[in-house]
Amino acid sequence: AKPMAYWRMGELAGASVADSTGKGHRAKLEPGFALHLEGTPGDGFGNGSIVNRAVQFAGGKLLTDLTLPKTGTIEFWFWNGLPASARKLSAILCSLGAEKSDSTVLKFSDGPRGKTILPLKTWHHIAIVRQDGSATVWLNGTKELRASSKPDSSPLIIGGEANDTANLEGK
Fold first, then answer.
1. Residue 162 and residue 23: Cα distance in Å, rounded?
2. Is the whole model's pTM more than 0.70, yes or no?
3. Do strands 27-29 and 16-17 pair parallel, antiparallel, or not at all (unpaired)?
């Protein structure tokens, strides 16, 4: 299946982020970010002398106009720069919710939590698979947890949630 949207986040300037699928799903960075920093290394991310680039979140987040279907997968690479001792919840990686209101988040705050302790400043791949009223979280190719997932018509937010409780401090 082809992606509904793909935001590479390698922009050089501005707060608008292009959807590489050509489907026109808008995304906008909220203040609190730095552009064009070194991104995920490895095959498929760069091309010889071309370095993959990433957005670094420093309090900001990516707001999208994408409403997720009941069945589908959200996946991305991330790099956390905030020590676990800095606050109760290191980072909310993605959520569903209208801006500046309560949100139904995929952090499963009232349910199961992952067990893996993630080293700082290391790239990790996450895939959240929504199917049959549940969501399974895969971390670096290994099943991390499964929880119920309510259908939601709110837009996807990457790097935080609507009320800015624990936005990602990283890439």
1. 24
2. yes
3. antiparallel
